[in-house]
Amino acid sequence: MSDIAKVTVLGTGVLGSQIAYQTAYSGFDVVAYDISDEALEQAKKRFAQLAVTYKGQVKGAADGKADAALARVTFSSDLGAAAADADLVIEAIPEKLSLKQETYRELGTLAPQRTIFATNSSTLLPSDMMEATGRPDRFLALHFANHVWLNNTAEVMGTTHTDPAVYRTVAEFAAEIGMVPIELKKEKAGYVLNSLLVPFLAAAGELLIGGYADPETVDKTWRIGTGAPLGPFQIYDIVGLKTVYNISIEGDEQQQAFAKYLDENFIQKGKLGLATGEGFYKYPGPQ
Ligand code: NAD
């Protein structure tokens, strides 16, 4: 048992709402915090939609469990009140270092001494933020994947200052909310999953841009050759081509060429991947 009972989630966007809902679904009391009442109104809609999704996709959720989870979530736009009784605060606010540091500085003065802080940041390292928390020993990263109810990895990554007991507590908590804890022994940008996925996807983009093979051929090769269910271009469609563009345009020459290809062939035509019904493939499709 992790000793965690009360959890506060900062940010109720794509990931924050999923983390908060999954935590409540697992029986914990959750406070969902966001910057304004308008944002919290949006959050309520996200939570209601998540309950519908769980009923359709998670075994047993339709037997009252999905609705019971909604009743365990309370909402607040007051950071002090939201954190006042938290054993664990999970931060899922926008991926901007200065914003995160500012938020941790404030949170550090408002939350009880015992409270553990965990960041869900995908690209920043916890050591970039640890000073701002005022409690580096009680701070680490707990990184979820989109669609937490299906893709249930939770990467646990501390800094050299994280207390090992805190690390264990958070890894245990991750398991208690139905995640598979992925324990990193030290800090690594991209954790385990993106350290594998990002170069894999980039290599697929290079095969296309270099004129070596079309997306269908690349995907087919990967599926048949490895037994994996999806090829890289199918994954690109799921991630969303606008997101892929934003990442690729910051990369090297090859990646920038791929970003331009995406822009001209898809983004300008409103084809953003699975979410818009078309990207490299059409949805719903045979693949
Ligand atoms: P998002 O833009 O969907 O949501 C961010 C939320 O934070 C919004 O509700 C916004 O109102 C709120 N917010 C803004 N400023 C705030 C503040 N000062 N305090 C509290 N809340 C504030 O973003 P997201 O995609 O959910 O990403 C959030 C974090 O999760 C990022 O660090 C990102 O790297 C990480 N993450 C995202 C994904 C993903 O697939 N989207 C996956 C894993 C990790």
TrEMBL record:
Catalytic activity: a (3S)-3-hydroxyacyl-CoA + NAD(+) = a 3-oxoacyl-CoA + NADH + H(+)
GO molecular function, one term: (3S)-3-hydroxyacyl-CoA dehydrogenase (NAD+) activity
Record-annotated 3-hydroxyacyl-CoA dehydrogenase C-terminal domain positions: 190-283
Biological processes per GO annotation: fatty acid beta-oxidation
Pathway info: Lipid metabolism; butanoate metabolism; Lipid metabolism; fatty acid beta-oxidation
Xref: InterPro entries: 3-OHacyl-CoA_DH (IPR022694), 3-OHacyl-CoA_DH_NAD-bd (IPR006176), 3HC_DH_C (IPR006108), 6-PGluconate_DH-like_C_sf (IPR008927), 6PGD_dom2 (IPR013328), Mito_3-hydroxyacyl-CoA_DH (IPR052242), NAD(P)-bd_dom_sf (IPR036291)
Name of this protein: 3-hydroxybutyryl-CoA dehydrogenase
